[in-house]
Specification:
alpha+beta, BirA Bifunctional Protein, domain 2, 2 domains, seven-stranded mixed sheet, three-stranded antiparallel sheet, 39% helix, binds 3,4-dihydroxyphenylalanine
Length: 339
């Protein structure tokens, strides 16, 4: 029995020594110490050993087992260490490599232009308000003195959702919402998205943005309108900017005008940018029509006001000298990064 155990131990140690992988060592463990292993077989054959010899043999088996286990564990630990060291060598991190750049987004040119306009009007004491993009016919047309047969109401121009509900074609409806709040005086601008049934080209899009303005107080005159918008133009396009008002027609203002600014590229002498005229059109404006005031429960005998509306994209295109509106919506990072 003793020789048999010695032989088992020798075999086991030899196999351990000959192993060059963790899997092989694992096999050794199974072959010698496992349930069906050589040492377990010896234990099972104890019944053939004379009873008085059993404790001795049992002790011998246990000692053999302990020895094999110890050698096996040491070998496994060593093998694991070698494996880990090899792996670490393979996975060295070169801390001197340049870091991967994180792309941080930034404001869209439209948004930069909007914040600029907001900044100027906030500086003049205006409040910034938001109106709904989905409107009823009443706010988008009727309350703005636009009659039922007006061409702007045509389905060719306006996106209708159903019945009287539509996507606003202008931010002017926000004037009505603010007047309905019943708090006077009013000094507000309302930036926001508007929708028109237009085809996409260099200057049109079915969805774009406007900034509306409304001032209502006692004794507001066209002089206030002129002074305010001239100041705004100087802030936005530079101190030497001049403004010019051309008569126009809007249903919700009377009188109405369009405002041009002197070309900030050539100073007004005429260039490619202003198409030779020296002037660039930037907004519509006028004195709020008495009908509009009355419909929103404001007495036109007591209060007067002016309003204006401009296209935000147009301002952004002018300010950044972009010649195609589509560039603003294509989300090409190479383009957007420039602003
Ligand atoms: N809502 C007009 C448009 O979409 C722009 C406009 C013109 C707004 C004159 C106004 C205004 O408030 O007084 O063309």
């Amino acid at each position: 029995m003793k020789e048999k155990l010695l032989k088992i131990k020798e075999d086991a140690l030899k196999q351990i020594e000959g192993s060059d992988a963790l899997e092989m060592l694992n096999d050794v463990r199974i072959n010698f110490l496992g349930k069906k292993g050589a040492l377990t077989a010896v234990l099972k054959s104890m019944k053939d050993v004379a009873p008085e010899d059993r404790p001795k043999v049992g002790q011998l088996v246990n000692e053999t087992r302990a020895e094999i286990e110890k050698v096996l564990d040491d070998a496994m630990k060593k093998m694991e260490r070698i494996k880990r060291e090899a792996q670490m060598k393979m996975e060295v991190i070169d801390v001197t490599l340049p870091a991967r750049k994180n792309n941080v987004g930034h404001r869209h040119p439209n948004f930069i232009a909007m914040e600029e306009v907001e900044r100027i009007f906030i500086g003049m004491g205006y409040e910034v308000v938001e109106g709904p993009e989905i409107e009823t016919d009443y706010y988008n047309f009727e309350a703005l003195n636009i009659p039922a047969d007006h061409p702007a109401k045509d389905e060719q121009d306006t996106f209708y959702i159903h019945g009287d509900i539509l996507l606003r074609t202008q931010t002017s409806g926000t004037q009505v919402h603010v007047m309905e709040r019943g708090k006077l005086p009013i000094r507000m601008i309302a930036p926001g998205r508007v929708f028109r049934s237009d085809e996409v080209d260099a200057t049109h899009s079915p969805s774009f943005h406007q900034i509306e303005g409304l001032v209502i107080d006692k004794r507001i005159t066209f002089a206030d309108l002129k002074g305010t918008l001239a100041e705004f133009a100087k802030e936005l396009f530079g101190a030497s900017t001049r403004v010019k008002f051309r008569p126009h027609h809007f249903n919700f203002t009377e009188p109405s005008a369009e405002m041009d600014v002197s070309c900030f590229k050539c100073g007004g002498t005429g260039c490619r940018f202003c198409k030779g005229s020296g002037w660039i059109e930037i907004l519509g404006c006028g004195m709020v029509h008495p009908n509009v005031l009355r419909m929103s429960n404001i007495d036109p005998e007591e209060y007067t006001g002016f309003a204006f509306g401009m296209g935000l994209e147009r301002i952004a295109l002018l300010k950044y000298e972009i010649d195609d509106m589509r560039l603003l919506y294509e989300n090409d990072i190479r383009f957007l990064k420039q602003f």
